[in-house]
């Protein structure tokens, strides 16, 4: 596992740069991924996506299917890509501190 | 990491290096290999030598006695698998396989010629297990086992997707897939694994599916898709979970209920079962049809597969119906009966409750593929279909390696396609790229990761090239398939090579076309895309 440091905090990440422990998640991590993803400013809509992902993960143990994310937030997939240019899986889940998806995906 | 542009990647250099193959070592460029498995996953499944290591670093931190372990492992496998010894001994280097591999065609690397890929293992076999190799060494193609050989095995055994296209052209029928799998087992025995495969394996062993879905997540996703069905068709598609005494256990790959476009195929299954009023149930534990374990070792394949029969027994079903999955069927048809010793006595020979057809081909393992099941329904004229609802689709069909070469399902999906599409909407790719000669998606066998994207695009190039041909010639805009790994990997592949073509499962098309009593007027397909010519079609029907 690699360690990244941002705003004075250290984070353990996997080889794809996903956070190893959700417990380490916090504003410093969000800011780190924001820089990585090239997002200029976090809006209310970004947070709506992040909060939904975290709530779903805590309840269900995995990230939601993209179509469920889209339905709950009311955002079309295209708009989610505008918010998170590398997509809901790689961008939004990473920022929310969720692990990367596995299997036939 | 940046992916080269398609026109750059398409310029494949087939000029072999000037030096002999033993002297040339793999070039571990980012984009061409998968990351090492995190120790966490190996610990979850009690696999040997979990440790933090990196492919990019010089020291792979092999266990001290690694050489002994590998050679003992090879000896053991030579004794248990007569096929392996035969494949080592029998090859005459005729080269018929050489240009049949999608990875060779896509990379131009001579070690991706199956004949040479096998030689990477065979040379070690010769050195330690044949008299002539022990005596004459390199002169007869034998070589010492050292760490560089291990690295080479890792590089090229994970550039083989065990698709067996080469085996089809081999005059001796040498099965490269079997050699690759046994080679991967030997690598695993010294803790050399890839993260993408092992993460999926560990999740599946722990929770029942490669995506690691908990029972509540499984139910939540499928309930959502049932609601989507009702929104679009007006038809409620009820789902049973863990219902004891159901006639049929339905098992499908997790890609179908988690990732688009597989989710639309799952909606199709639910519509079909509702239409037939089938007595069926899901199991929230046997929640995975696929089997990444088989990509790692026979033992792990068996471990992950066991839950299917286990759940069938617990739920007291009569037989098992399986969704659109590729390698699931290779495992079920060709391994399950051997792994579990005998025919499970609690299951019955599958009989379609709708047509009365006895699925003789499933007499041993008691599992029927959804395409076989649906084709039989159509043959008995049991489904009312409106093919015009798929009129926006011009389709070609990708035979998944495992369902085609692995079990001979060629006609069933095509028969379904004929019924659910309007006439003249189906176009075959060139004959040497379909049916038993089909080209692999390029990312199967557990290498559908992100970090090896350049390799995936190279390996999938021959398939994509054939898709491009029918797209340009006939205006094909959809690629159909009956495999969830295909539905995961082909959209990425086509986005790169032929972005005009989308990927669809076949049962999704069935779901589009099924005509229910009491349905609402269908204005879109299951993906919420507008149907073409709905008004005209209705007018035409009234005249009859």
What's the quick description here?
The complex is a heterodimer of chains A (105) and B (544). Chain A has 105 residues and is mainly α.
The counted number of beta strands of chain A is 2
DSSP helix count of chain A?
Answer: 5
Average pLDDT of chain A works out at 92
Main β-sheet description of chain A = 2 strands, antiparallel
Uncertain segments of chain B: 537-544
Q: Ranges of chain A with pLDDT <50 over ≥5 residues?
A: none
Biggest β-sheet strands, sense, barrel of chain B: 4 strands, parallel
Give the total of domains of chain B.
2
> What is the global morphology of chain B?
globular
CATH topology of chain A: Arc Repressor Mutant, subunit A
How would you sum up the global shape of chain A?
globular
CATH class of chain A: Mainly Alpha
What integer value in Å does the Rg of chain B equal? 24 Å
CATH superfamily (homologous) name of chain A: DsrC protein, C-terminal domain
Look at the helices and sheets of chain A and give the structural class.
mainly alpha
Mean pLDDT of chain B: 95
Rg over alpha carbons of chain A: 13 Å
Q: Which bin fits the share of residues in helices of chain A?
A: 40-55%
Strand order of the largest sheet of chain B: 2-1-3-4
Q: In the residues of chain A, how many domains can be counted? A: 1
Task: Classify the secondary structure makeup of chain B into a structural class.
Answer: mainly alpha
């Amino acid at each position: 596992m690699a360690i990244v440091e941002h705003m004075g905090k250290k984070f353990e990440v996997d080889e794809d740069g996903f956070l190893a422990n959700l417990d380490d998640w916090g504003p410093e991590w969000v800011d780190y991924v924001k820089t990585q993803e090239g997002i200029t400013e976090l809006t209310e809509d970004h947070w709506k996506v992040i909060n939904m992902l975290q709530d779903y993960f805590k309840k269900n143990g995995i990230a939601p299917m993209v179509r469920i994310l889209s339905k709950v937030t009311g955002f079309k997939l295209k708009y989610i890509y505008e918010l998170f240019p590398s997509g809901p899986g790689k961008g939004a889940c990473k920022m929310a501190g969720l692990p990367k998806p596995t299997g036939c995906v | 990491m940046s992916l080269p542009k398609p026109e750059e990647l398409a310029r494949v250099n087939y000029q072999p290096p000037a030096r002999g193959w033993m002297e040339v070592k793999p070039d571990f460029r980012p984009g061409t290999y998968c990351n090492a498995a995190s120790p966490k996953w190996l610990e979850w499944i009690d696999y040997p030598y979990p440790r933090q290591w990196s492919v990019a670093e010089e020291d792979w931190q092999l266990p001290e006695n690694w050489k002994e372990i590998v050679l003992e492992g090879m000896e053991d496998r030579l004794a248990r698998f007569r096929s392996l010894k035969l494949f080592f001994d029998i090859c005459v280097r005729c080269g018929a396989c050489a240009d049949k591999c999608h990875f060779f065609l896509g990379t131009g690397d001579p070690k991706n010629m199956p004949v040479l890929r096998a030689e990477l293992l065979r040379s070690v076999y010769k050195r330690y297990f044949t008299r002539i190799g022990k005596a004459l060494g390199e002169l007869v193609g034998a070589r010492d086992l050292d760490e560089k050989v291990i690295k080479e095995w890792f590089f090229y055994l994970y550039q083989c997707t065990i698709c067996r296209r080469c085996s089809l052209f081999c005059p001796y029928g040498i099965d490269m897939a079997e050699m690759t799998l046994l080679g991967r087992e030997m690598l695993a025995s010294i803790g050399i694994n890839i993260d993408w495969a092992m993460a999926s394996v560990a999740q599946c062993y722990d929770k029942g599916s490669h995506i690691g879905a908990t029972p509540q997540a499984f139910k939540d996703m499928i309930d959502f898709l049932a609601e989507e069905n009702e929104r679009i068709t007006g038809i409620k598609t009820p789902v049973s979970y863990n219902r004891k005494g159901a006639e049929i256990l339905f098992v499908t790959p997790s890609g179908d209920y988690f990732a688009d476009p597989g989710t639309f195929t799952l909606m199709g299954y639910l519509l079909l079962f509702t239409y037939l009023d089938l007595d069926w149930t899901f199991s929230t534990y046997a929640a995975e049809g696929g089997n990444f374990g088989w990509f790692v070792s026979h033992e792990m394949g068996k471990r992950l597969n066991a839950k299917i029969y286990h759940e069938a027994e617990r739920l007291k079903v009569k037989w098992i119906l399986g969704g659109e999955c590729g390698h699931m069927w290779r495992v079920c048809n060709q391994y399950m009966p051997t792994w579990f010793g005998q025919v499970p006595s609690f299951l019955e020979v599958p009989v379609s409750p709708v047509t009365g057809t006895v699925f003789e081909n499933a007499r041993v393992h008691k599992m029927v593929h959804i395409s076989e099941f649906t084709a039989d329904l159509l043959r008995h004229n049991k489904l009312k279909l409106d093919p015009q609802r798929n009129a926006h689709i011009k389709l070609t069909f990708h035979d998944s390696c495992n369902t085609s070469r692995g079990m001979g399902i060629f006609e069933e999906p095509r028969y379904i396609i004929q019924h659910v599409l309007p006439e003249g909407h189906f176009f075959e790719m060139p004959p040497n790229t379909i049916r038993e000669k089909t080209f692999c998606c390029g990312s199967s066998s557990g290498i559908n990761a992100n970090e090896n994207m350049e390799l995936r695009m190279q390996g999938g190039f021959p398939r994509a090239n054939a898709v491009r041909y029918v797209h340009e010639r006939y205006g094909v805009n959809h690629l159909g398939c009956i495999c969830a790994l295909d539905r995961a990997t082909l959209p990425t592949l086509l986005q790169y090579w032929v972005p005009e073509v989308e990927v669809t499962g076949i049962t999704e098309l069935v779901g589009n076309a099924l005509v229910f009593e009491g349905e609402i007027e269908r204005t879109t397909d299951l993906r919420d895309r507008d149907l073409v010519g709905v008004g005209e079609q209705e007018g035409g029907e009234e005249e009859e």
